[in-house]
Design a protein that fits this description.
single chain, alpha/beta, Methane Monooxygenase Hydroxylase, Chain G, domain 1, binds flavin-adenine dinucleotide
Amino acid sequence: MSMPRRTFDVVVVGAGGGGLRAALQLASADLRVAVVSKVFPTRSHTVAAQGGINAALGNVTPDNWQWHMYDTIKGSDYLGDQDAIEYMCRTAAQLVYELEHYGVPFSRLDSGKIYQRPFGGQSTEYGKGQAVRTCAAADRTGHALLHTLYQQNLKAHTHFFDEYFAVDLIRDEAGYCLGVVALDIESGEPLLIEARATLLATGGAARIFRTSTNSHINTGDGLGMVLRAGIPLQDMEFFQFHPTGIAGIGNLISEAARGEGGYLINGQGERFMPRYAPHAGDLASRDVVSRAIIEEVRAGRGCGPQADHVLLKLDHLGDAILQQKLPAIRELSIRFAHVDPAQAPIPVFPTAHYMMGGIPTNRHGQVVVPDHFGPEEPVPGLYAVGEGACVSVHGANRLGGNSLLDILVFGKAASEHILEYLRENPFPRPLPPTAADLPASRLARWSQKGDGERVADIQSDMQRIMEQHCGVFREAESLEQGVTLLREQQERLQHARLRDHSKIFNTARIQALELENMMETALATMASARYRTESRGAHSRVDYPQRDDDNWLKHSLYFREGMRMDSKPVRLKPLTVETFMPQVRRY
Ligand SMILES: Cc1cc2nc3c(=O)[nH]c(=O)nc-3n(C[C@H](O)[C@H](O)[C@H](O)COP(=O)(O)OP(=O)(O)OC[C@H]3O[C@@H](n4cnc5c(N)ncnc54)[C@H](O)[C@@H]3O)c2cc1C
């Protein structure tokens, strides 16, 4: 298949916070930088982040990066790599001040300093007090950050391919990554984007679950691309579930609702959380509340005609408090649950929220092919950052406010390494004649219209399987069935066809390509969950309820070929400070 070709120094796939932070640095160094995004850049999912970004500025309470580092390692249930975590926490303040200088309109304290709020799992003095560490622009931090980075990129002359869908990576026989093949969504025309370095910043994949706080674009495209390129994924069993997504839809109802005095009730009208967490009750940690809700539903004490959710009661707070303290939540509930929380409780259910695993990288953003028997090898010319990458700073469980930090810190770190790599590799490598064969064949396959199974039906079946077999609680038999069922869906997808509706044809083709990526991601997640026979962080195995450091203080690796599993050690050694040794995790 012959294709039009464009050449750049670097191609960045993804225009969320991670991609745009990296692109800004590269374009400011006068490189020719292309950013490819399947949606208009400021619609990337970073825009939805509300609460804020962590940095130990100490504007409200005394703070330092070592305490932040300790909290992050403890939050990760000791699975995070301590060199990367130290690097992130040490760099955090500098990154936030950079954002301020770029023009992010942070909220202000009376002193004029950046406003900071308390978030879960954050402490002072290694667990003694509550830290106030999360820097915020009201409840629209991601929005402010993304728009600012986009404007700065326009100023730096970054080239944007808006509404282009990256299909697959291009590599040569020596393993170098030479760019991507993308599809112009509007015209349906393919485009080969050649570059000496490629950065994947394609975000998370929580859309593999039936209900999710993520937008519809979070389909794990970067994960599918690397798996097809023979690169494994790391720690895919670790998905964070938020206890209060709107039931059946998943939009996030923030913990602030319970913080203001809201509480959960079951189908019998009982306030059940004190049975599960006598001290913290409704404000217990996210994994505890999520598990409690599922247990209520499984015991037949759910609400609604299907008894498949519980209710979050806020009406007793009164109109004034809802209006002053929780206006956005009220609006979300009215719009998506068709319930005014001033009058009736909101139906909620644990909802897939965040992916801790992803494309394995080192702290320079280089994609590394880990080898159990030898040192990790970087894939030359290939980098990954953001929620789709696993560096790994979140380990088995992410702290709120640490993802915006992760995407910025490692977006910057990756761009600095790319500058070095390009100096060492000043000339483009020749494209092999077969370079675009794989993406061309996938595009050709999804150009055929006809009668067959509907892609949308297979997608919803896959999402339901993920929810039923790989949700908050997991156990061997159900995970085994889940793998079998997912493989059946993958087989069904082989026989699916796009219907002949010319007006929707291109978007249907994108949905099919996305579903291929989601299917790969779902299989990686289910197989990794089956592999890890312990409970750690967000991964809760009822048949192995304890954390097992002797056997499982290690990262899992999933290879697409034969669905093979392997592992690699956690990097317990920080850069400059002492290791935080694993402890029993109590809050
Ligand atoms: C409701 C909600 C609230 C949150 N609040 C916070 C918070 O307060 N603090 C915090 O730290 N974290 C928060 N998070 C998490 C955080 O927002 C995300 O993890 C982070 O923004 C992800 O950024 P990213 O750059 O990796 O990807 P994204 O912002 O998701 O961007 C992905 C980009 O990749 C592009 N892309 C994907 N596939 C393709 C393809 N095939 N071709 C072309 N382009 C492609 C998309 O178009 C997009 O531009 C929240 C998450 C949710 C869901």
